[in-house]
Amino acid sequence: MVWPFSKARKKNDSPEATHRTMAEFIVEAEQEIDRQIREDPDWYKNLPYQGGLSPEEARGFEIEKRAMWKRVIYDAGRSELAGLKWVTRQDKLTCQDCRAYHGRVFAPDELRKLALVPIHLGCRCELRPVR
User: Which domain of life does the protein's organism represent (predicted)?
Assistant: First the structure.
């Protein structure tokens, strides 16, 4: 049976070989966030959102954001989207690295490259689908 709303799988791709769970993204994100926290002892003081979260809550929030970021890129690669657009808030808290990516559209063949772009703690950027 052909599913009309999903991208056709290659014959040699099993669902197990192509599917990643959210738990896998969370584990990966947790490792990245913990590494960044170790590298920056002042990470909590430098977050753009202040006062509302304890350091433990902020760490959890950063892990969830990073896992979702990775999941969005992964799902875009399995879809028929024309790409993902990097969007910032364009305010005084937007860092120079993120500002440079604002408005950039990553086509499907660039999603692996996008997945490798380093994301800093406290990043408020979004990836929006391009249809």
Answer: Bacteria
